């Protein structure tokens, strides 16, 4: 499975012209570019090698939901991936695990690939609560997955009709472990801790009966430290914020990832 690098532009850049320029400068195979909604169409028109992602979606398809954007609208623009439950949304907008669960279900229902973000705050890490937090975010965030299965698959569920997890039916799911204290701080987690967290996350995915999840790392990844993470087979890629706002920098990270494909 080739490594996947996700460029999360967040609320950047300021103008359409800059967004087009950045998309052009970043365009490389193995990269998923996630611009703000207003720049998605322009980015889709510019990129030839990268894939397109969105930074969020809403769980309903249409209706009276001011300000929201649906999975089918995103799909129509050529979006393939959707970041769900980023800690900045959880912290700034009060996004809960229950909301995340609905968004994950909607993403899968629309045939898009969710990138579920999980991770603890500095205080939670210091209190030794990291695994507890990640387990809750995963178990609640993925609790509606059984709902997204087509009827023909529903009979294969461990506990059909109870909103429980599918047994290996979900093939396209990315989990991004992003310790909140490492995001945008210039201080990434250690690869050793990431490997321990991957093992833990995979254990939970097994428990849930969800197979083949790709687990990636996020938090202050740059071309300088990317290799220390990406050289490990277990680490499926990286979610990159700040460093993705520079075309040369993100391409350098993708190049490092390619070495280990
Ligand atoms: P960062 O952001 O690379 O700027 O730390 C990562 C993220 O928030 O996904």
From TrEMBL:
<comment type="pathway">
    <text>Carbohydrate degradation; glycolysis; D-glyceraldehyde 3-phosphate from glycerone phosphate: step 1/1.</text>
</comment>
<protein>
    <recommendedName>
        <fullName>Triosephosphate isomerase</fullName>
        <ecNumber>5.3.1.1</ecNumber>
    </recommendedName>
</protein>
<keyword id="KW-0963">Cytoplasm</keyword>
<comment type="pathway">
    <text>Carbohydrate biosynthesis; gluconeogenesis.</text>
</comment>
<feature type="binding site">
    <location>
        <position position="184"/>
    </location>
    <ligand>
        <name>substrate</name>
    </ligand>
</feature>
<dbReference type="GO" id="GO:0005829">
    <property type="term" value="C:cytosol"/>
</dbReference>
<comment type="subunit">
    <text>Homodimer.</text>
</comment>
<feature type="active site" description="Electrophile">
    <location>
        <position position="86"/>
    </location>
</feature>
<keyword id="KW-0413">Isomerase</keyword>
<dbReference type="InterPro" id="IPR013785">
    <property type="entry name" value="Aldolase_TIM"/>
</dbReference>
<dbReference type="InterPro" id="IPR035990">
    <property type="entry name" value="TIM_sf"/>
</dbReference>
<dbReference type="Pfam" id="PF00121">
    <property type="entry name" value="TIM"/>
</dbReference>
<comment type="similarity">
    <text>Belongs to the triosephosphate isomerase family.</text>
</comment>
<dbReference type="GO" id="GO:0004807">
    <property type="term" value="F:triose-phosphate isomerase activity"/>
</dbReference>
<dbReference type="InterPro" id="IPR020861">
    <property type="entry name" value="Triosephosphate_isomerase_AS"/>
</dbReference>
<feature type="binding site">
    <location>
        <position position="220"/>
    </location>
    <ligand>
        <name>substrate</name>
    </ligand>
</feature>
<dbReference type="GO" id="GO:0006094">
    <property type="term" value="P:gluconeogenesis"/>
</dbReference>
<keyword id="KW-0312">Gluconeogenesis</keyword>
<comment type="function">
    <text>Involved in the gluconeogenesis. Catalyzes stereospecifically the conversion of dihydroxyacetone phosphate (DHAP) to D-glyceraldehyde-3-phosphate (G3P).</text>
</comment>
<dbReference type="GO" id="GO:0019563">
    <property type="term" value="P:glycerol catabolic process"/>
</dbReference>
<feature type="binding site">
    <location>
        <begin position="8"/>
        <end position="10"/>
    </location>
    <ligand>
        <name>substrate</name>
    </ligand>
</feature>
<dbReference type="InterPro" id="IPR022896">
    <property type="entry name" value="TrioseP_Isoase_bac/euk"/>
</dbReference>
<dbReference type="GO" id="GO:0006096">
    <property type="term" value="P:glycolytic process"/>
</dbReference>
<dbReference type="InterPro" id="IPR000652">
    <property type="entry name" value="Triosephosphate_isomerase"/>
</dbReference>
<feature type="binding site">
    <location>
        <begin position="241"/>
        <end position="242"/>
    </location>
    <ligand>
        <name>substrate</name>
    </ligand>
</feature>
<keyword id="KW-0324">Glycolysis</keyword>
<feature type="active site" description="Proton acceptor">
    <location>
        <position position="178"/>
    </location>
</feature>
<dbReference type="GO" id="GO:0046166">
    <property type="term" value="P:glyceraldehyde-3-phosphate biosynthetic process"/>
</dbReference>
